[in-house]
Specification:
about 725 residues, alpha+beta, Methane Monooxygenase Hydroxylase, Chain G, domain 1, Alpha-Beta Plaits, about 15% strand, Myosin_head_motor_dom-like, actin-binding, actin filament binding, ATP binding
Length: about 725
């Protein structure tokens, strides 16, 4: 790329990522640039990118309309539109949705839904309803199932966007029915229920989904909703027992503590009374009343048909978990054994047993002992205080996870999944790529999922590129496509992928995170995507599509071990509460010696992901990338560096990269002639069609590698900059 004095450019900036500039001077491969902020900076020519000085100040509604499709062009286009409350922008068929952090009711009313109904995609302004309508029309016209993949980091607005898409689909495909519990209402009403039990406040988001969700909305032959099914992925079980300030546990616990009748009945009081909630000092959320939210959760339970008996049992279980968390242990006189610490702990143990409706002594025994099988029968091995606490927390996590799974099953049964339905639109609301100061097992699983989805995304974008070239009858066969199969093999390939090595370590009692890391580096001494940690040798970093992430392995083994404790199941399956005993009806098969059975979280997640990918591959995908514009949740505030990072993580810039591999600039012949006709003024009196005139201009400038399609000219990277430079001289 050549630049000279007067060239309009983008130059890198520490604070703003990129700023506008104009080249003042060029010497020895370095440019002196005057920036829009009034500074004069120097930059290597290779680090400058061309800028369109005639770019619309309001931005363009589709990034493919940008003259220069590059990183700063994309960033500033989004920034300009966001400043005007234009929160939606297309990149081809991908919708980018920027969280406005304010209510925009005029965008989502029934009138707006009617506007988008049946309209050709791209004719109206970008909108979540347009994506939903495109999916619905494609399903009806092609008789093929569709999927809409909504991604983004916590707080970017994924869940709200998914709700809006669901709202639109129920508008165009809803049944007219006097039934108060129609399918579409139950699908929508399942959201507050799943949010109460699956969402929590995190550092980045007051209502963060701590699980992945795939909703299949099923349609009959006439396009009416006839059923639905919800699948969930990787609920963050550890949150039930461990939180950090200023985060919260799952919403349902605080709602229950703020209820009047139930809180008194189950002897709860304020949330600060409980260890599982008071590890953080945050109990309230801005703009949310826990008591009011409890009523909404009750209403959602009614809608999906949960009986009042089962509702009471659910709240008993939540209360029991809270009381269980307050049971503390003290060492007994015997070596490595423990007992209930004091009267306060005894009270909470008694309350937990009463609420679980099980024997108090048996409950205590399951917490303080582990049972081993021998030839002479079962032997009870006493647990020390830390092991008893771990057993207590395992029980709490197991009960909560079983309850969450039951709720999902109940919603599915209530809504009704139609097995013979051939058409569906799947909505995937899943955690985006994560990279924090401390990245543990959860981030590893989340980023593994995102690598899988990124490969699917890349393949789809590349296919769309091929279709565009085919439709325009131009040659595309030489364009390379680089995917991320190598890192997926590193993570999941048997027998020596990271997941397999982790499972192997978890099955050896003496294995530690250090021995796991050592085996990992021995197995992959020179893998280009894997590096050792610089400070701790047990840490490892992976070069993901969105950037490098350093993982701390300290708790990898603990978090991957999903122990099924036979005594816990036996205790609760004999509960006098039929709801609880049904939850634990199928006692897991015991291993040969220990009553603790190892189950791999990562392997189960890998299987779920594989099933999800098979479903997605059988559908036509549509993509929504949600962006969080700032970390302070303020409207009209746009933080360039943060947004740029999210564009990389969401694969938007990867889509741009795939476009750059071919012909990033495509212009209709009339657009091209309007802008560059001045370069062939000698032909102005000749009656040439626009395609011929376009070719004459390009031949005159001795361009190569361009292609002329049926309706557009396709230019290689950098060619438009040369045309602009020539045009400036006229």
């Amino acid at each position: 790329m050549s630049f000279w004095r007067g060239s309009t450019v983008w130059v890198e900036d520490k604070e703003n990522a990129w700023v506008e500039g104009e080249v003042f001077d060029v010497k020895n491969g370095t440019a002196v640039v005057n920036t829009a902020q009034g500074k004069r900076v120097t930059s290597p020519l290779g680090k400058l990118l061309p800028r369109d000085p005639e770019a619309d100040h309001g931005g363009v509604d589709d990034m493919t309309k940008l003259i220069y499709l590059n990183e700063p062009g994309v960033l500033y286009n989004l920034s300009r539109r966001y400043a005007l409350n234009e929160i939606y922008t297309y990149t081809g068929s991908i919708l980018i949705a920027i969280n406005p952090f304010t209510k925009l009711p005029h965008l989502y009313n029934e009138h707006m839904m009617e506007q988008y109904k049946g309209v050709q995609f791209g004719e109206l302004s970008p909108h979540a309803f347009a994506i939903a309508d495109a999916a619905y029309r494609a399903m009806m016209n092609q008789a093929r199932s569709q999927s809409i993949l909504v991604s983004g980091e916590s707080g970017a607005g994924k869940t709200e966007t998914t709700k809006l898409i669901m709202q639109y689909l129920t508008y165009v495909g809803g049944r007219t029915s006097g039934d108060d519990r129609s399918v579409e209402q139950q699908v929508l009403e399942s959201n507050p229920l799943l949010e109460a039990f699956g969402n929590a406040k995190t550092v980045r988001n007051d209502n963060s989904s701590r699980f992945g969700k795939f909703v299949e909305i099923q349609f009959d032959g006439s396009g009416r909703i006839c059923g639905a099914a919800i699948r969930t992925y990787l609920l963050e079980r550890s949150r039930v027992v461990k939180i950090t300030d200023p985060e919260r546990n799952y919403h349902c616990f605080y709602q229950l503590c703020a209820s009047v009748k139930e809180a008194e009945m189950y002897k709860l009081g304020h949330a600060s009374n409980f260890h599982y909630l008071n590890q953080s000092n945050t109990y309230e959320l801005d703009g949310r009343d826990n008591s009011h939210e409890f009523s909404k959760t009750r209403r959602a339970m009614d809608i999906v048909g949960i009986s009042h008996y089962d509702q009471e049992a659910i709240f008993r279980i939540l209360a029991a978990i809270l009381h269980l968390g307050n049971v503390e242990f003290a060492p007994k006189k015997e070596h490595d054994s423990s007992e209930v610490k004091d009267e306060r702990s005894n009270f909470h143990l008694k309350m937990a047993a009463n609420l679980f409706m099980c024997d108090e002594k048996v409950l205590l025994s399951t917490l303080c002992f582990r049972y081993l099988k021998t030839h002479d029968g079962n032997i009870a091995k006493a647990l020390d205080c830390s092991a008893a606490v771990a057993s207590r927390d395992t029980l709490a996590k197991t009960v909560y996870a079983r309850l969450f799974d039951w709720l999902v099953e109940k919603i599915n049964k209530s809504i009704g999944q139609i097995e013979c339905s051939r058409l569906m639109i799947g909505l995937l609301d899943i955690y985006g790529f994560e990279c924090f100061k401390i990245n543990s097992f959860e981030q590893f699983c989340i980023n593994f999922a995102n690598e899988k989805l990124q490969q699917h995304f890349n393949q789809h974008i590349f296919k769309m590129e091929q279709e565009e070239y085919t439709n325009e009858q131009i040659n595309w066969s030489y364009i390379d496509f680089v995917d991320n199969q190598d890192i997926l093999d590193l993570i999941e390939k048997k027998p020596v992928g990271i997941v397999s090595l982790l499972d192997e370590a978890c099955m050896f009692p003496k294995a530690t995170h250090d021995t796991f890391a050592m085996k990992l580096f021995q197995s992959f001494p020179t893998h280009p995507r894997l590096e050792k940690g610089k400070i701790l040798k047990s840490d490892f970093s992976l070069s993901h599509y969105a950037g490098k992430v350093l993982y701390q392995t300290s708790f990898f083994l603990d978090k991957n071990r999903d122990y099924v404790v036979a005594e816990h199941w036996s205790l609760l399956s004999s509960s006098r509460c039929s709801f609880i005993s049904r939850l634990f009806a199928s006692v897991p098969e015991e291993p040969s010696r220990s009553s603790y059975k190892f189950s791999s979280v990562a392997s189960r997640f890998k299987q779920q992901l594989q099933a999800l990918m098979e479903t997605l591959n059988s559908t036509e995908p549509h993509y929504v990338r949600c962006i969080k514009p700032n970390s302070s949740h303020c409207p009209r505030k746009f933080e360039n560096r943060s947004v740029l990072h999210q564009l990389r993580c969401g694969g938007v810039l990867e889509a741009v990269r795939i476009s750059l591999a071919g012909y990033p600039t495509r212009r209709t012949y009339s657009e091209f002639v309007d802008r560059f006709g001045i370069l062939a003024s000698e032909h102005k009196d000749q009656r040439l069609d626009e395609k011929t005139l376009t070719e004459r201009i390009l031949r005159k400038l001795q361009f190569k590698n361009f292609q002329l399609g049926k309706s557009k000219v396709f230019l290689r990277a950098g060619q438009i900059a040369i045309l602009d430079a020539r045009r400036m001289r006229y």
